[in-house]
Amino acid sequence: MSEQNIFAEDTNRITRAWYKQEPWLAVCLACFVPVLAAIYVPVFLKMPLIVLGVFLLTISMGMLIRQLRAN
Known about the structure:
Blueprint lengths: L2 H13 L2 H4 L1 H8 L1 H6 L5 H28 L1
């Protein structure tokens, strides 16, 4: 690989949005929304929102592991 191609790849990586570089991070951040919403909703909605938050966290960790194995 030539030096010019290396710089082109670095520039391309820098210009991409953070959620395109690390898609698992967007899902991980989204897991906080239902958990924070569970603070303000009635009692019967708290458990489903917490379960949804844990589910999103689990999915994001799976995405991270898959990304690490691909590299």
